[in-house]
Amino acid sequence: MSDIGAYQGATQTPHEAGFGDYVELLKPRVMSLVVFTALVGLLVAPVGLHPVEAFAAILFIALGGGASGALNMWWDADIDAVMKRTARRPIPSGRIPAGEALALGLALSGFSVVMLGLATNMAAAGLLAFTIFFYAVVYSIWLKRSTPQNIVIGGAAGAFPPMIGWAAATGSVSLEAVLMFALIFMWTPPHFWALALFMKEDYHAAGVPMLTVTHGRKATRRHILVYTILLAPFALGAALTGIGGPLALAVAVGLNLWFLVGALRIWRRDEAMAVADNYAAEKSFFRFSLLYLFLHFAAFLVEALLKPYGLGGW
Description:
Distance between the termini: 50 Å
CATH topology of the largest domain: Tetracycline Repressor, domain 2
Largest sheet: none
Strand content: under 5%
Radius of gyration: 20 Å
Number of domains: 2
CATH architecture of the largest domain: Orthogonal Bundle
Order of helices and strands: HHHHHHHHHHHHHHHHH
CATH superfamily of the largest domain: UbiA prenyltransferase
Shape: flat
């Protein structure tokens, strides 16, 4: 991290950090997605866990996700300080010292992995450990500042939670878990590239080689369309496995058609059109991408809940 030493030395906390500051350090919005997809992965698995074990598993997966967030904020404190979207985070705003964030991230990492292993099994614990390492080291430290493919490869970190949930219940990984992983992995690039289209100046100011900065917005629009097309088979494939059913398939068809329409709309626009309406299409696509992922996993969950009544699944 190029300027983190100087940044850390210059940063002083104006007041004692409160509980809310530490919660923010764990990236609660990202953690909510981690919790939800991990919970779905756990509940749709063919092996059930005792409610206490299931609660413990989700709690420790959530803490592992929070640990990743804290480590990411520690490493990215220097670039967060120059980006409008992130300047008010706990470290650049001076509410939490960078060293304290690092200590918390490392402590939660070790605690969450060990406790998940004790509560469930070593397969789940190993996957959680690898996820934290991947997000903190492979993505944050290596990829984010070195390649425009940062969000493509780094997206794997956010795709692991449903696989971890599945492993917590079954002790292994199967096709269904891999397809849930692939669904999030392929969804991540168009989701973040849409954000980058209307936040380009932030990434440019911070020197982050996001695709919009290195290849331009026209190329980014084309990449969004390509990845949206490539995403659909994984979404449909997951709906056709044991975690899917008629409802999940109908949801997958509808959502992917709508997502494709949005990607085509972005692809057909030029920068003048986007500026004229303040990136309305790009912002709409980004908002819908959040709903897209939630509804896919919600459909898997509903299918699992209906199965005991003979109504869900194939």
